[in-house]
Amino acid sequence: QVQLVESGGGLVQAGGSLRLSCAASGRTSSINAMGWHRQQPGKQRELVADISRSGRINYADSAKGRFTISRDNAKNTVSLQMNSLKPEDTAVYYCNAERTWPRAYEYWGQGTQVTVSS
Predict the structure, then answer these.
(1) Phi/psi at 86 (nearest 5 deg)?
(2) Is 45 helix (H, G, I), strand (E, B) or coil?
């Protein structure tokens, strides 16, 4: 079992920055990819960015150029640096971890609220 705990959310004005962090515990050796999703008000949950254990990164178009995902395998953490925040970035942000062995499974954190004021 893997537990994920997010931190770093809060209220920020447009143009500001936040850094989200996610700490994994439990059977962390089983984790392959980790990432961040978000759910904006009235919308479906969507991928923001993810990163494999080897460091391969994917960004959503909305995140590219403004957000940076990073991972520390030794500390079992993944972070999302968010710069130039816009009101449309307001969402609940969720940490995600993928396990592929012995069977495919996804773990999710409880989410952290990010609110960007105009």
Answers:
(1) -120, 155
(2) coil
Cα separation, 114 vs 85, whole angstroms? 10
Q: For the chain, what's the residue count?
A: 118
- Cα 24 to Cα 34: distance, rounded to the nearest angstrom: 10
pLDDT tens for each residue of 53-89 = 999 999 999 999 999 999 998 999 999 999 999 999 9
Element (H, E) at 70: strand 67-72
Spatial distance between the Cα atoms of 61 and 84, rounded to a whole number of angstroms: 14
Query: Could you give the CA distance from residue 105 to residue 88 in angstroms, rounded to a whole number?
Result: 30
Question: What does the alpha-carbon distance between residue 65 and residue 3 come to, in Å, rounded to a whole number?
Answer: 30
Two tokens, residue 115 = 């609110």
Q: How many CA atoms lie within 13 A of 22 on its CB side?
A: 30
Element (H, E) at 22: strand 18-26
